[in-house]
């Protein structure tokens, strides 16, 4: 028996909810924008890991530094705590996501690995316990606990981190007709570094505006007001400080607005940007412009996406 799990790209923060809001996305043309992990019977070897995929060269050379190995360690720790037998596993990571891209690349590997390990062991951990482990792994990589990539990647859709009453995250309704244009320029911005440049404290006016934007956005989503929700997508917490890490971002946002996009922001800690529109022609026009003007090298790409409401999914038993 073996299982392959696909975990999609995600937009941390969605501009308006630093560390507490995230969205999973998948390209409309069916491209797999996410990692896959295969877990198969390891036979007489307790654990082995091999890696493949278009971004395999960007992974740490030592497999013990790969987050998938650490996922195996924490998963088996949890099984041992519960007196559940750990099975020998042979794992393969298909690394399709660029690292340090703002697309939740590490979250893709973490979610695919832990979801696949759990399924291979007949789901001994419930959704919340698994999500808590995913957060632990993301914190190990970025230096602080935030669920805004792993939660949408695992559960799908637009997710709000409530982190109370034993609930980590809950889904918020969003607009099904929105296109999310994702543009990765091909350069690297490490999440830990993009967090380190943020202020430790904020002015009262910024706090008020942040609360107004996030509450207004969530209200717009629940009351079915797309224009209000899109107008609320403004970031006073991270974007003013991170913009300097993203060459051409201000220009790209200006173009997207003139072309008819509803809102544009930094995806996660960047350098990927996202731009929202409800008009496919606008999405294609913005995508073309970003390909020609925001992408900096051959590693960059642009995808027109929809919200991925599935989150991580089983794609079969072989890669
Ligand atoms: N499977 C993996 N996928 C992505 N990054 C990994 C993986 N294993 C280890 N890493 C390391 O974790 C760090 C991820 O960097 P980060 O900026 O947080 O990426 P992202 O924001 O794209 O998730 C890098 O130092 C990378 O070498
Ligand atoms: N809330 C985090 C999100 C980081 O997302 P990533 O895709 O860049 O890892 C932050 O903004 O630091």
UniProtKB/TrEMBL annotation:
Transmembrane segments: none annotated. Its EC number is 2.7.1.39. It is found in: Cytoplasm. Pfam families: GHMP_kinases_C, GHMP_kinases_N. ATP binds at residues 98-108. Pathway: Amino-acid biosynthesis; L-threonine biosynthesis; L-threonine from L-aspartate: step 4/5. GO terms for molecular function: ATP binding; homoserine kinase activity. InterPro entries: GHMP_kinase_C_dom, GHMP_kinase_C_sf, GHMP_kinase_N_dom, GHMP_knse_ATP-bd_CS, Homoserine_kinase, Ribosomal_Su5_D2-typ_SF, Ribsml_uS5_D2-typ_fold_subgr. PROSITE patterns: GHMP_KINASES_ATP. Residues 66-157 form the GHMP kinase N-terminal domain. NCBIfam families: PRK01212.1-4 (NF002288), thrB (TIGR00191). Belongs to the GHMP kinase family. Homoserine kinase subfamily. Catalyzes the ATP-dependent phosphorylation of L-homoserine to L-homoserine phosphate. This is Homoserine kinase.
């Amino acid at each position: 028996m073996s299982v392959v799990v696909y975990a999609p790209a995600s937009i941390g923060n969605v501009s308006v909810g630093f560390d507490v809001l995230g969205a999973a996305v998948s390209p409309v043309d069916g491209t797999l924008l996410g990692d896959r992990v295969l877990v198969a019977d390891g036979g007489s070897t307790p654990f082995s890991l091999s890696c493949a995929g278009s971004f395999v060269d960007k992974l740490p050379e030592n497999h013990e530094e790969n987050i998938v190995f650490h996922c195996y360690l924490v998963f088996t720790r949890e099984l041992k705590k519960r007196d559940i037998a750990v099975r020998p596993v042979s794992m393969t990571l298909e690394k399709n996501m660029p690292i340090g891209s703002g697309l939740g690349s590490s979250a893709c590997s973490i979610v695919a690995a832990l979801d696949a390990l759990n399924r291979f062991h007949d789901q001994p951990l419930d959704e919340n316990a698994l999500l808590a482990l995913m957060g632990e792994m993301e914190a190990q990589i970025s230096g602080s606990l935030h669920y805004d990539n792993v939660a949408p990647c695992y559960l799908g859709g637009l997710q709000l981190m409530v982190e109370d009453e034993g609930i980590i995250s809950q889904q918020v309704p969003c607009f099904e007709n929105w296109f999310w244009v994702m543009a990765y320029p091909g350069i690297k911005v490490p999440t830990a570094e993009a967090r380190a440049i943020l202020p430790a404290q904020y002015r009262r006016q910024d706090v008020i505006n942040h609360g107004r934007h996030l509450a207004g956005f969530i209200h717009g989503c629940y009351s079915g007001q797309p224009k209000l929700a899109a107008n609320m997508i403004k970031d006073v917490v991270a974007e003013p400080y991170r913009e300097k890490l993203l060459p051409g971002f201000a220009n790209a946002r200006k173009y997207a607005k003139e072309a008819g996009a509803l809102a544009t922001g930094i995806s996660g800690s960047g350098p990927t940007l996202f731009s929202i529109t409800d008009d496919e022609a606008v999405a294609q026009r913005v995508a073309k412009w970003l390909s020609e003007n925001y992408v900096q090298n051959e590693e960059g790409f642009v995808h027109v996406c929809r919200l991925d409401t599935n989150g991580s999914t089983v794609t079969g038993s072989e890669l």
